[in-house]
Design brief:
The chain is mainly beta. Helix content is 0%, strand content 38%. It is built from no helices and nine strands. A hairpin with a 4-residue loop joins strand 7 (84-96) and strand 8.
């Protein structure tokens, strides 16, 4: 539903520059299914009935699956996964030599090493129902680099 991407760059003393990119998005919706073919169409993607309005969507007791011949009344994308946030940071130093401009830099992606979980398992027959079993994005990554720029005349 919501997404924010913010970029900040600041010139620091002694030829240094710092930049940061903040990314945030609210959780993405996912379907909750019975894991069975309740309506007889040979698909196991039927939705359950909502048994406890306002209940916890990661708790199986919030839903009712004991029916046949129809699809449940739960709307599509009823569950909402966890939010996602990361901060990337970069510091660089610019050095001017006779025939070349040099930039020495250090970059950190996912600076705070936040674990961003993927959407939970929405299959009510699964023992992993309501649990996120994978992460999205990557763990903290740091790299050091040198950039050479040969300005033309």
């Amino acid at each position: 539903k919501h997404q924010v991407v913010a970029n900040l760059t600041a010139a620091l003393p002694a030829g240094f520059q710092a930049s940061m990119v903040l990314k945030y998005r609210s959780g993405t919706p996912y379907n909750i299914t019975t894991g069975a073919d309740n309506n007889g169409d040979s698909q196991r993607t039927d939705r359950p009935d909502l048994a406890v309005p306002g209940g916890d969507p990661t708790d199986k007791s919030t839903f009712f699956t004991g029916f046949t011949g129809r699809v449940g009344n739960l709307p599509r994308n009823y569950g909402v996964g966890p939010d996602y946030a990361t901060v990337d940071f970069r510091v660089s130093k610019f050095i001017r030599l006779k025939a070349v401009n040099v930039e020495v830099l250090v970059e950190a992606f996912n600076l705070f090493n936040r674990e961003n979980l993927d959407s939970p398992n929405g299959n009510l027959l699964s023992s992993l129902f309501g649990q996120s079993t994978s992460i999205t994005g990557s763990p903290r990554e740091i790299q050091i680099g040198v950039r050479l720029d040969f300005p033309g005349k």
